């Protein structure tokens, strides 16, 4: 079977990254971020276009200067659970922080979603870079970067351990023998590690996928290590083709070096396609959107996100860029460190940094449908991506992509014409992990 | 308007309290506890019968000796979120522990459910009596009873504070002025208490009910104090009519003494009606079910639940009842302390205690439809209940109650013939709480 690409839809209400003025668009309901019917319609449209997954990002800290969508949004797991019963085949990937949730709760909620969706749940593991988040969870200081990543890795191990609490055939429910559970197939975890002690077992049967799919978006050294070790789906940062190829190669090599099959690490490059009838019209549209969305204050706020949502408004705009490297380090923002380096090398003021960082660069997936399909196919063939995590400005833009670009990808044989199955693992080409206790038993018997 | 009673449905898959053998019933799917379609159908049937609320209990610890439904069940919030989009008017009350969840997460998840359900969410606050639960959350020792209740009270305060982060009119979303948020209507909480420090604000607008409804099931002294102070709905333990009247009076008096309107504390007595064509047939059915469900091992396991899920199997059945008062105290189980007292006063062995505790006592709501309606009306009129939290053995039993008993209650004018509104508050007759910041502003302006 020829290799085909995967598509995820990143869902936002009134605006995702680079769409901060979207709430002003008349086509978008002002309360879209908390309107469950809006999300259900998005997911159904993506499912009709045979997307692999529907993906919800998250954050847990705001201040009044944040973009519209961040200020007011549904919690990802409750959102996806509602979407689950109105869809049938599309994967449902929710973001949850391993820093501010206990593994037992995470294991329960994602396994519950996997049951409710009949095998379509995925967990996007994040460590919460926003330093303000810690103050919503009783900590004065944000956990430092290595601690957050150590905790994330251990949390994934614990959660996976809990997901294996029951073997697949643990519940014979045999009325004649009066046996509901076979107790030899229920296993406590008894985990005691550096960050967690969790006894288990989980009070939930193995879910239809065996285990929900683990997603991650590692960019830093620690992030890449974590991604290569635990992730089955990766949200890659994008950038240029060369940058994406390098990232792709690096992650696949790291996974192989850890003894994993690189094909079982599906790398999805983040992309915001802008499609119009001609290339020229698409580029004009893209530029117009950028100008409408990005006034100086918005750009200044956006810069802050590379430093753990630091507030740059009190600084003198025309003084040299302030010494904020420690903020980027603490929140683990690779981009922040790059910015500090560039500002120092080029002797930039804060104002100059803002303009440089927020410089307009069109998405490589901007153009007429054929152009966009070309680019998507090219990056895929050139070893930059196994697929894409797409974001669209409006529902109409998603519909246009589905109507005009997806059929071209299908005609070229690089995208499916029907779902491989009704679980996320089936569509991503990922194996169902064998239960560790069943494996151990079988291995002992041999 | 004459006072009318309220009905909640307590939902279980393959068996609730006193239904431990239910999984053997051919009418019940063996996987009912994790089958979302089963729950959706239950909720829709209860909604068609105009029930106020659909209620999901929870626990977070199991061992292999637990009843079938406890072993394997969906997490309440994901479950209810899926149910929300398939119902329109019935309240959705989920259980969550204030001992093992952070207030910020609780506030988000319940507010999210309130948005998704358009104003039908309720939080049943529990402190998790099962001592084993602590070991799933990194603690060697279960938090003691007063600590758990102090934490619960503070958690409710913090969650309510977070629910008021935004005033109702915080989002003008005024395109002409370019104003999405009015920042003067967004408020940090900056809570620093004995158990929690939470800065806020919550990243979610005030939900359609202003705040989800708080439920509680306080029996002990601390539980009653908490219930009287914070609960708007109470799941009362039931027992005899006289016991229920005493409990009802006590809670209403406590609430009034705290300056609350006793009508805004809705007391629902737990009841498992058994309805058949005649009283005699109903009592025979009730007895048969009890016998089928309760072998000695089951009774021994059930006894353990009054002592924080203590395992009594290692004890000599014919020796005097062991000294386990400290276990009942630690888990705060009033029932356990009563059992210890009775065992001492009457010099009982463990075996005798098991048989005494598990003695067959039919529900006071057992009989022909008229008899059951009589009893429900009588307890309601006699100051024992504002309504009932009902559990049924099978879906067919719920349907029978809806078809045969509900119309009698309606004919007598003690139950609604249509919903008062599409929010849980509207149907329970509870006010929408004013936002504290709006109140403060208005009071300062006067």
Describe the structure.
Two copies of one chain form a homodimer. Chain A has 446 residues and is α/β, with parallel strands linked by helices. Chain A has two domains: 6-278 and 364-442, TIM Barrel, CATH 3.20.20; 295-357, no CATH class. Helix content of chain A is 41%, strand content 11%. In chain A, the strands form three sheets. Chain A has an eight-stranded parallel β-barrel, surrounded by five helices. In chain A, helix 6 links the parallel strand 7 and strand 8. In chain A, helix 1 (36-48) packs parallel to helix 14, helix 4 (103-116) packs across helix 5 and helix 10 runs antiparallel to helix 11. The longest helix of chain A is centred in the middle third of the chain and has 19 residues, at 145-163. Chain A is globular and about 80 Å long. Chains A and B meet through helix 2, helix 3, helix 4 and strand 6 of A and helix 2, helix 3, helix 4 and strand 6 of B. Chains A, B: InterPro entries: Diverse_substr_monoxygenases, Luciferase-like_dom, Luciferase-like_sf, NTA_MOA. Chains A, B: Residues 29-384 form the Luciferase-like domain.
Largest sheet of chain A: 8 strands, parallel, barrel
| Broad CATH class of the largest domain in chain A | Alpha Beta
- Shape descriptor of chain A reads globular
**Number of extended strands of chain A:** 12
Percent strand of chain A: 5-15%
Order of secondary-structure elements of chain A: EHEHHEHEHEEEHEHEEHHHHHEHEHHHH
Q: Which stretches of chain A are poorly predicted, pLDDT < 50 over at least 5 residues? A: none
Radius of gyration of chain A: 22 Å
At CATH level 2, the architecture of the largest domain in chain A is Alpha-Beta Barrel
Output the strand order for the largest sheet of chain A.
1-2-3-4-7-8-9-12
DSSP helix fraction of chain A? 40-55%
- Overall mean pLDDT score of chain A? 93
The CATH superfamily of the largest domain in chain A bears the name Luciferase-like domain
Q: What is the oligomer described by this structure? A: homodimer
GO molecular function, one term (chains A, B): oxidoreductase activity, acting on paired donors, with incorporation or reduction of molecular oxygen
Family (chains A, B): Belongs to the NtaA/SnaA/DszA monooxygenase family.
Pfam family, one (chains A, B): Bac_luciferase
Protein name (chains A, B): Putative monooxygenase MoxC
């Amino acid at each position: 079977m020829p290799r085909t690409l995967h598509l995820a839809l990143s869902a936002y209400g009134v605006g995702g990254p680079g769409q901060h003025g979207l709430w002003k668009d008349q086509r978008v309901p002002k309360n879209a971020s908390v309107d469950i019917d809006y999300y259900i319609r998005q997911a159904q449209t993506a499912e009709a276009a045979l997307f692999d997954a529907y993906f919800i990002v998250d954050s847990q800290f705001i201040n009044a200067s944040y973009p519209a969508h961040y200020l007011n949004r549904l919690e990802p797991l409750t959102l996806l659970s509602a979407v689950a019963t109105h869809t049938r085949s599309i994967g449902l990937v929710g973001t949850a922080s391993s820093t501010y949730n206990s593994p037992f709760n995470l294991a329960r909620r994602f396994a519950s979603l996997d049951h409710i969706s009949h095998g379509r749940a995925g967990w996007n593991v994040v460590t919460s870079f926003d330093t303000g988040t810690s103050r919503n969870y009783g900590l004065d200081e944000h956990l430092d970067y290595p601690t957050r990543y150590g905790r994330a890795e251990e949390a994934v191990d614990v959660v996976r351990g809990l997901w294996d609490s029951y073997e697949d055939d643990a519940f014979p429910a045999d009325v004649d023998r009066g046996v509901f559970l076979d107790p030899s197939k229920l296993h406590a975890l008894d985990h005691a590690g550096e960050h967690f002690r969790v006894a288990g077992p989980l009070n939930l049967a193995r879910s239809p996928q065996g285990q929900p799919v683990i997603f991650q978006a590692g960019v830093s050294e620690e992030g890449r290590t974590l991604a290569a070790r635990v992730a089955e789906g990766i949200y890659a940062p994008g950038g240029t083709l060369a940058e994406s190829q390098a990232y792709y190669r690096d992650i696949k090599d790291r996974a192989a070096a850890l003894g994993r099959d690189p094909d079982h690490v599906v790398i999805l490059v983040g992309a915001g396609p802008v499609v119009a009838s001609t290339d020229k019209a698409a580029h004009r549209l893209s530029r117009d959107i950028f100008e409408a969305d990005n006034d100086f204050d918005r750009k200044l706020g956006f810069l802050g996100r590379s430093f753990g949502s630091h507030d740059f408004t009190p600084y003198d705009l025309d003084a040299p860029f302030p010494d904020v490297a420690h903020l980027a380090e603490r929140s683990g923002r690779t981009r922040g460190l790059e910015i500090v380096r560039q500002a120092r090398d080029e002797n930039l003021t804060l104002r100059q940094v803002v303009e440089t960082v927020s410089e307009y660069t069109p998405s490589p997936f901007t153009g007429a449908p054929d152009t966009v399909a070309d680019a998507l196919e090219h990056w895929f063939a050139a070893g930059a991506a196994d697929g894409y995590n797409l974001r669209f400005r409006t529902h109409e833009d998603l519909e246009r992509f589905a109507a005009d670009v997806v059929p071209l990808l299908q005609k070229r044989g690089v995208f499916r014409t029907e779902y491989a199955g009704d679980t996320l693992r089936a569509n991503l080409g990922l194996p169902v992990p064998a239960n560790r206790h069943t494996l151990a038993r079988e291995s002992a018997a041999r």
